[in-house]
Specification:
Layout lengths: L1 H36 L1 H11 L1 E6 L6 E2 L5 E13 L1 H5 L5 H8 L3 H10 L6 E7 L1 H10 L4 E10 L7 H4 L1 E2 L5 E3 H5 L1 H4 L4 E7 L5 E9 L7 E2 L4 H17 L4 E8 L5 E7 L18 H4 L9 H11 L7 E3 L4 E4 L2 E4 L6 E3 H7 L2 H9 L3 H10 L26 H8 L8 H12 L3 E2 L14 E2 L3 H13 L18 E11 L2 E15 L6 E8 L8 H4 L1 H14 L25
Parallel strand pairs: 2-10
Antiparallel strand pairs: 1-8, 2-3, 3-4, 3-5, 6-7, 8-9, 11-12, 11-21, 13-16, 14-15, 17-18, 19-20, 20-21
Length: about 575
């Protein structure tokens, strides 16, 4: 009996031992399975439950002026984001969070409801560093900060129209920022971050794709000349209580735009409450009748025809001419003028008589070659081509009107390109906003000989007896043409609304800079281009020629008298 009991006890101990050993074996096998065989799978599952996949942003390329000064840069800024499901369970924290972010608990609740089932939602974009720190200190589960970038424009309104701006997602919306968006734009990466117990992003686990920064863009602009043009145009528009204005400065040799400004301006760093119309880059998007600034091209057609020379006499007496049902007038009765004198005195009668002696096709040809009625290809958003009707549609009164800049429309940029051809020995260079490091070929508009004759005539227009005397610059020879245009209204040409123009270049002996100034509806008393736009040209050129260290010309030599003693022009 005792032996039987001993056998039973030994059997029980063996069974218990076997069970224990089996348990240890099972635990060991399970440990091997979990820690070795399934480690990668389990780690992946854990990461999925305690990690987030978020954007890894990079910065947009800088926009620089031709000397490397920044015109647009990206600055780091934090945005507040949340995991909707986690934050939805933290309702007591909504009020404090809303106070910091300028929203309400109800609005947070509505946002989370709309984003239910998503992994990511923004609560507030581009917050200040102070707000970011205070949000972080709240330690609200499911709420984190994301590094983004905000665009900053060092020149503010000085270059607002040409540089443009981006939206909150760093996408170009206007100006160069839009035109070259694909070049400047960064490509965001994707990264996986580990959550802390509160559901906030804590540390980087891995980069799923690396971010790629945008490429820098070097413009042709010179920020110093840009500021000069901005300051002087703004002063003129303000002093004359004008509706608007635009100005362009370009390098005659390369076609590079050195300055482009508009009024009214806007600050791209603060666009709150601004209407879209203030963003209009009038120098490229708006067209205007050019008035007497077009007369040099009428004379170019006359010289090309072989029927006229610079000293060919034109009888403008008695200061009027009737073409069809229209009476064309000069500001004075200039009597007999030479062709050069028609430019110097800005005679509408003289220009009309020259034009009516030419074929319509010959006039249209020179205007078309100069680029009127065509896009400049500057690659700025919204550029328009202007209006130059086919010559087959011209009637005599229209042919006469076009000779002095009515009946067609141009942009200030187009007019600058056209004057660039006169300055550059008859060759028009393709315009660009990008700095050129290599020479490019231009397009012949007129012969070098005709361009040289026009430069002499246009220089005379800025002499003491010309209409553009107020454009003069000390120590430099200046050539330029004024324009005063009655604006077309629904009831006809206005007697109260005018455009004031000046287009010219310097120095005459070796032209480098071309500038066009347009002031729309000056209401300060005078409205003549010689009084309103010419002084802007003179003040900008005074600074720009010296900034670029362009050698002064020899003292101005007055050209031989082109007419008998006559009163000075009225500023056409």
């Amino acid at each position: 009996m005792t032996r039987h009991h001993d056998n039973v006890r030994r059997f029980r101990r063996a069974v218990v031992l076997m069970v224990v050993l089996a348990g240890f074996a099972a635990l060991g096998a399970r440990a091997v399975y979990l820690q070795i065989l399934s480690a990668e799978f389990l780690q992946s599952q854990g990461n999925q439950r305690h990690s987030r996949v978020v954007k890894d942003n990079s910065h947009r390329g800088m926009v620089l002026d031709r000397h490397g000064s920044p015109l647009a840069v990206s600055t780091p800024v934090d945005s507040v984001w949340a995991h909707p499901e986690t934050l939805a369970h933290e309702k007591p924290s909504w009020w404090k969070l809303g106070q910091l972010l300028g929203t309400s608990s109800a609005e947070i609740g509505q946002l989370l409801k709309r984003q239910d089932g998503r992994e990511f939602t923004y609560l507030k974009r581009h917050v200040t560093p102070e707000v970011a720190e205070r949000v972080k200190a709240l330690e609200v589960p499911g709420v984190s900060l994301l590094r983004e970038y905000r665009r900053y424009y060092p020149l503010g309104p000085v270059a607002g129209h040409v540089i443009g701006f981006t939206n909150i997602d760093d996408q170009g919306q206007e100006g160069v920022e839009l035109a070259y968006d694909s070049w400047l734009r960064a490509t965001p990466g994707v990264k996986r971050v580990l959550k802390d117990p509160q559901g906030s992003a804590m540390e980087l686990i891995e980069s799923l794709s690396l971010p790629v920064a945008g490429k820098d863009l070097v413009l042709s602009l010179d920020r110093r000349i840009q500021y000069l043009a901005y300051r002087e145009l703004k002063a003129a528009v303000t002093a004359n209580r004008a509706r608007s204005g635009a100005a362009v400065v370009m390098d005659a040799r390369t076609g590079e735009i050195l300055a482009l400004v508009n009024e009214p301006d806007f600050n791209p760093n603060n666009r709150v409450g601004l209407k879209s119309q203030v963003f209009r880059n009038r120098a490229v998007t708006d067209t205007y009748e050019p008035g007497s600034t077009l007369k040099p091209f009428t004379v170019a057609a006359a010289l090309e025809s072989g029927r006229f020379r610079a000293n060919t006499p034109i009888d403008t007496a008695p200061g009027t001419i009737r073409v069809g049902d229209r009476l064309i007038r000069d500001t004075h009765n200039y009597g007999t003028l030479t062709v050069s004198g028609v430019i110097e005195k800005s005679s509408n009668v003289g220009a009309s008589k020259i034009a009516l002696a030419l074929t319509k096709q010959s006039m249209w040809d020179i205007l078309q070659r100069a680029g009127f009625g065509q896009l400049t290809g500057i690659a700025l958003p919204g550029e328009v081509s202007g209006v130059l009707r086919a010559p087959s549609r011209w009637v005599p009164v229209e042919q006469a009107a076009i000779s002095y800049g009515y009946g067609m429309s141009v942009t200030p940029l187009q007019l600058a390109r056209a004057y660039g051809a006169i300055a550059n020995n008859g060759v028009s260079m393709p315009l660009t906003m990008i700095k050129r490091d290599t020479a490019v070929d231009g397009r012949a508009v007129m012969s070098p000989a005709i361009a040289a004759q026009l430069r002499t005539m246009i220089e005379a227009a800025t002499s003491p007896t010309g209409t553009g005397v107020r454009a003069q610059v000390a120590d430099y020879r200046i050539a330029g043409k004024t324009g005063t245009v009655r604006k077309l209204t629904p009831t006809g040409y206005s007697e109260e609304q005018y455009l004031s123009w000046f287009a010219g270049f310097a120095p005459v002996s070796d032209p480098r800079l071309v500038m066009v100034v347009m002031v729309d509806e000056p209401r300060g008393g005078s409205y003549y281009g010689g009084d309103i736009a010419a002084p802007v040209f003179g003040r900008v050129m005074t600074g720009a020629l010296r900034l670029l260290d362009i050698r002064p010309d020899a003292p101005r030599l007055r050209s031989p008298s082109l007419i008998a003693a006559q009163p000075a022009g009225g500023g056409a």
